[in-house]
Amino acid sequence: MTRFSYRRENRHEQMQLEIFEAALFGTEAEVMERALAWLQRDIPFDGLLWATGAPRAWEDVHVVGRPPEMARDYRAIAPLDPVCGRAESAPERAHAVTVAELCAPDSPALAFWQGYRGHQLMIYSKPDGSGQVSAWLSLMRADGARFSAREQQAMGHAAQAVLTAQQVWRAKAARARAAQPAPATPLTGRELAVAHAYADGRPVKEVARLMGVSTSTVQCHLARIYRKLGVHSKIALRKVLQDRRSRPRCG
User: Where is the HTH luxR-type domain (predicted)?
Assistant: First the structure.
């Protein structure tokens, strides 16, 4: 391995480390910030589309260096876009295209890309775990300078790391959402009174006598209280109520 190759490998490893660190411990915006910084070190470009979703049905599109309306307008031409088709047909490769050569004359796709100054494009797509292409990264140039073979190679390394890191971040976010408890339904005034009386150590019969209701009514209240608070014992109920009492009041 030459000294140049060794330095290049080190750069790739450093890039992956920084981007994956952002994916594991940061926000999606931080992942994008790190990704942009690394892409711009090796590849001159003036616009970017970063999307997720099925081919020609992108759900979430980030636009950099172009008006935000580009994301909305792309959806109108997506079913006919040969640029997306090129990346879809051969994923995990950097495709450099000249829009005027790939798109048919007077086609909506050509009008779209040229209207947003995307005369030269380099696009990369990545499948998800099921093999369905679901992540896309496209770089744009307005000046007409073609992307070189060296830049395509750099895009291959960077886009693979960037889109994988994004998938890692989204999987992490989905797990965090799934782990969140369902929003608690507030107790009614009667349920709160029953909960406090029972948690203070009174038996069900005494709580019923104090409340002027039957024991079966108290038991029904307790079943709803346990379900709403997500507890399964008197000890757990007492702790939840104590935590609520100790919580500072606003105002």
Answer: 180-245
Spatial separation of the C-alpha atoms in residues 243 and 230, rounded to whole Å: 14
Strand order in the sheet with 133-141: 57-64, 47-54, 133-141, 120-127, 95-98
* Residue carrying structure tokens 């029972």: 198
Torsions phi, psi for 94 (to 5 deg):
-85, 120
Tokens, residue 55: 């081919």
pLDDT, average across residues 203-221: 91
Q: Is the pTM of this model over 0.70?
A: no
One DSSP character per residue, 210-250 reads HHTS-HHHHHHHHHHHHHHHT--SHHHHHHHHHHHHHSPPP
Give the position of tokens 């307008």.
73
Cβ atoms of 199 and 239 within 8 Å: the answer is no
Task: Write out pLDDT tens, residues 66-78.
Answer: 999 999 999 889 8
Structure tokens at 165: 């890191």
Q: Assess contact for 45 and 55: CB atoms under 8 A.
A: no
| Confidence band for 251, pLDDT divided at 50, 70 and 90 | very low
Model pLDDT, residue 181: 59
Neighbour-count burial of 20, counting CB atoms closer than 10 A to its CB (0-12 exposed, 13-18 middle, 19+ buried): middle
Mean pLDDT along residues 193-206: 92
Q: CA 72, CA 167: separation in Å to the nearest integer?
A: 23
pLDDT band at 182 (very low <50, low <70, confident <90, very high): low
In the chain, the domains with their CATH numbers are 3-178 (3.30.450.80), 189-244 (1.10.10.10)
